[in-house]
Amino acid sequence: MIRVSIVGGSGYAGGDLLRILLFHPQVEVCQVTSERHAGKMVSGVHPNLRKVSRLKFVAIDELENCDVLFLGLPHGQAMQRIEQFEALAPQLIDMSADFRLNDSDAYERWYGKPHLCAERLADYVYGIPELHRRQMSNAKRIASAGCNATATILALHPLAEAGLIDNAVVEVKAGSSQGGNSASDASHHPERSGAVRSYKPTGHRHVGEMIQELQCGNIHFSATSIEMVRGILATCHVFLNQSLEEKDIWKIYRAAYGSEPFIRIVKERTGIHRYPEPKLLAGSNYCDIGFEKDPHSNRLVVVSAIDNLMKGAAGQAVQAFNISHGIEETTGLEFPGLHPL
Ligand SMILES: NC(=O)c1ccc[n+]([C@@H]2O[C@H](COP(=O)([O-])OP(=O)(O)OC[C@H]3O[C@@H](n4cnc5c(N)ncnc54)[C@H](OP(=O)(O)O)[C@@H]3O)[C@@H](O)[C@H]2O)c1
Hints:
The chain contains 11 helices and 14 strands. It is α/β, with parallel strands linked by helices. It binds NADP nicotinamide-adenine-dinucleotide phosphate.
């Protein structure tokens, strides 16, 4: 068994990670941290885990050595304590943004302050398995990708690889769990409920990841909070630099993702679920991707959907963990979502 602990296990991403890892056949969850809830049952914070786990939270300073430490702290926290974490486990899988950008100037540009340990950035594999599977094998440091970045990068990567993107305008609609479990004025129920709130029309930090991974500067990204708890829908308006028909686009996406276990091309002619829809993905690790070519222009609309806490965080981190240990990639991640929900 691989002995695993979770730092930041009282959070939304850490909680979903715990839910998955408790059922992973090759994992023993040893410790789960929360500073606020140290000493209390994990099921007190994650009620879905009642009768599933009798673990109690510990404080970070009570952590013992283990094989793998998953980090689910707010951004900026992991890098402050990185030496402590490195001393506890040979493998670190970080779900925060601290080690996603491999260039310290890019980090400073997108996060507005210098990185505290820029010399470590090169040690981390960017955590989208579909792009970096080979580097993940035996990797000791993995920086799981941002949720908006994951939805956007997976939607656009096949086109970027083929050099087809002139410009891409991406609008993401996001659920409230993206903001984590701390209450704020913006998350107060009368303010958040029913919202269609443009919260980041420009300058979203995840754009740094998109530029890094797509190697394409012409990505224009906006994010809107909508009435949803889990889920992200990315609508990507791609202005192609050559004239392509739908059959050409099919070929490109099939070649890129045809054998991927967690990517489904969703593009039906009939029915009510013709294109990707986050509601169908709650709790699952799938990324659904669909597209439609505008017959009147060079615009290709690519639509992708994920559960932000799964393919956007915990699920993707476990997928990377599996690959890094040579375990079947889908282990622990077989849940197909619910319908209806
Ligand atoms: N939510 C998402 O959709 C999503 C998706 C992808 C990636 N992520 C990333 O995953 C990380 C966690 O996100 P989340 O949504 O799970 O956040 P969250 O719900 O706010 O949870 C944060 C966790 O970090 C702990 N924590 C907070 N400040 C701390 C500090 N100063 N020292 C020690 N522990 C501290 C909290 O423990 P206490 O119980 O002590 O407060 C809690 O366990 C973030 O970096 C986020 O960017 C989140």
